[in-house]
Amino acid sequence: MNDRTQTLLQDSDAFDSGATVDRVAQRAHEAIDTVAAKVKPAVEGVQSAANQAVDALHAKTDALGEWESEWLDSARTHIREQPLTSLAIGLLAGVLLSRLAR
What pLDDT is attached to residue 20? Predict the structure, then answer.
């Protein structure tokens, strides 16, 4: 061994690796706690926005279901009151769609 290697080995013996590991671990915990404290409001904001979006989506789904029901009731009523007109409209729509599909 050369003198430099021997000196490093002697210095490493004096070096308390357990205390250093403890200090590094403590600093890592502090850093993680700091990051978590800063990130928490952002995560809560995203969660709140997601919950609001879900609520809005449910409201729109309910409104669409009500609109569909009203539209179907209106169509049924119209077909019962004017069956020949409804048949003619259906036939015309079928002819137009078949021509567009070609």
Answer: 82
